[in-house]
Every structure is written in C-alpha cells, then in structure tokens.
Amino acid sequence: MNIYLETRNNLGLSRDKASELLETISPEKLERIEKEKQLPSPDDVMIMAQKYGEPNIRNYYCANQCPMGQHYVPQIKFNDLEKTVLKLLASLNSMHTKQEKLIEIAEDGVISDDELTDFISIQKDLKKINMAVSTLELWTEKMMASGLINMEEYRKLTEE
C-alpha cells in the first residue's frame, strides 16, 4: 500500500480532511499522490510528515522516490527504543574490537589488497552504527511529534 495513503488512513482522515490539515495540498493532488499517478514534491513530503506527525515519511521519500536519495539514503525501519539501543550497542561493541585494525589500515593512507577484507568488514560495522543512530533519530522525532518528548526542551538542550 502507498505510504501516504496508509498514513492518512491510519489517522482516520478522509482525503478532504487531510487536505484541510495539509493546507497546501489539494484533495485532487493528494489522490494522485496516493494512487501513485504523481510523485509528491519534497515540500509536499515535508508538510505531510509534519502535519501527520510521521517523520518516517521523509525517510521513505528520500530512500525510495528522490533520484539522488535513492543512491545515498538508506530506508530506515522504525523500531522501538529498546531494540534500537540494543542494535546500537551491539554495533559499537563490534566496532570496538576492530578499532586498532582500522588504525593500522589508515596509518599509511593506503588500503592494500591484504587490508581490503578487514576494511570492508569495518565499513559494514560502521554502516550498522549509522543505521542504528538514524533509527534512534527517527524514533526521537516520532516521540516529539506525538508529544511524548517535550520538543521545546529537547531543542533547547541539543543547542547547548
């Protein structure tokens, strides 16, 4: 099912009510987006993510529909906090054991053929860490959007 349609349905909104909430997206345009006859613009996605309180819509768009993002942005699967933290810690622990090897590989500024296997393994671990951090960020945004984390306080504390 189309993520935009699924999100609207999960919120119990008719297309007309959603259009009122979104303010700048007409019911007709919303229908074209939901029936995959038209891709949403980045601005449409930002508005839907904010007004629907679903930040995962932005990641979905970037990972699947944006021509540049499809090459650089991984699809993040929303997870609960406990699973996300456990994945992050497991990835960090794995990387901890490889940090000296990374230093050895990097010290001459060249990756030789005999270092390549270790280097690729380290890259994979770093990607796991990156995914866990991105998932944690998405979880935080979703909690702020739902009011379970005080957005003003969070932003104030992260600016320090």
Tags for this entry?
10 helices, 0% strand, 160 residues, single chain, 2 domains, 71% helix
Describe the protein in words.
This protein has helices spanning 3-10, 15-22, 27-34, 42-52, 56-64, 69-72, 81-96, 99-106, 113-145, 151-159. By secondary structure, it is mostly helical. The chain folds into 2 domains: 3-72; 81-159, no CATH class. α7 runs antiparallel to α9.
Q: Which structural class matches the secondary elements?
A: mainly alpha
The portion of residues forming beta strands comes to under 5%
Task: Give the proportion of residues in helices.
Answer: over 70%
The backbone outline, from C-alpha atoms, is elongated
Radius of gyration, CA atoms, in whole angstroms: 20 Å
Give the ordered list of helices and strands. Answer: HHHHHHHHHH
In round numbers, the mean pLDDT is 95
- Show unreliable segments: none
- Care to count the β-strands? 0
Structural domain tally: 2
What distance lies between the first and last C-alpha atoms, to the nearest angstrom?
A: 41 Å
Q: Determine the number of helices (DSSP H or I, runs of at least 4 residues).
A: 10
Brief sketch in words of this structure:
This protein has 160 residues and is mainly α.
